[in-house]
Structures are given as C-alpha cells and as structure tokens.
Design goal:
127 residues, mainly beta, four-stranded antiparallel β-sheet
C-alpha cells in the first residue's frame, strides 16, 4: 500500500494550493481517505475526509468553506483544494486511508482509525 502526497509549497495568505494523494495497493472504492495536518509542537489534526464509494465528505470547522476534498476514481487520487489560505494553515499535511465504515463517519478525526499514511507535504502560508 502506498499513499504519496504532493502539491505543498509556500503561498501568501489568501492564496490557494491543491494537494494530491496518489494511492496504490488497495481497492480504492472500498476505502475512505482522510487529510490531516500537523504543525510544529501541535497534535495531528483531522482536516477532511471522503468516502470513495458513497462520496461522503466532512471538514474540520476551521477549514469549512475554504477547503474542498474530491476524488478521481480513475487515477485513484484524492485532492484537497485549499483556498483563502491563512498562516494558521501552515503545517505538514498527510493523507491517510482505511476501510470505509459507518463508524469511521463518526470518528474520522481520530488519526488512530487509519491504517495507512503518506509521508506528508509541507504547506507554508506567509502573512
């Protein structure tokens, strides 16, 4: 199983980035993919989730209205479109995968629920 994030970088406040999470090694349609972030000295925070088969999505309150998660089944890739970025969004962003379930819909912000993780991509937002 592999998850590979890309698309991070340095952007000014108010700018946009699109992160990608390319996956392989599992049945994409059976899984949910979450995006998490971790700033230095902070706990890992759940940002968003998408259920690949049912299209379920959810977001952390801090990013609602600014971030959009989507998936491309043909490419087995999940995207996180981030608009109106703020300095507080600065962090390493990770994607994670686990077999989808009703329970996950309630517990998706808990990083312990996920089986597979990518290596992370740095997002830095300057003021």
């Amino acid at each position: 199983v592999q998850l590979v994030e890309s698309g991070g970088g340095l952007v000014q406040a108010g700018g946009s980035l699109r992160l990608s999470c390319a996956t392989s090694g599992f049945t994409f349609d059976d899984y949910a993919i979450g995006w998490f972030r971790q700033a230095p000295g902070e706990e890992r925070e759940g940002v968003s989730i998408i259920g690949i088969s049912d299209g379920f999505t959810d977001y952390a309150d801090s990013v609602k209205g600014r971030f959009t998660i989507s998936s491309d089944d043909a490419k087995k890739t999940v995207y996180l479109q981030m608009n109106n970025l703020k300095p507080a969004d600065t962090a390493v962003y990770y994607c994670a995968a686990r077999y989808d379930s009703v329970v996950l819909k309630r517990l998706w912000v808990n990083s312990d629920e996920y089986d597979y993780w990518g290596q992370g991509t740095q997002v830095t937002v300057s003021a």
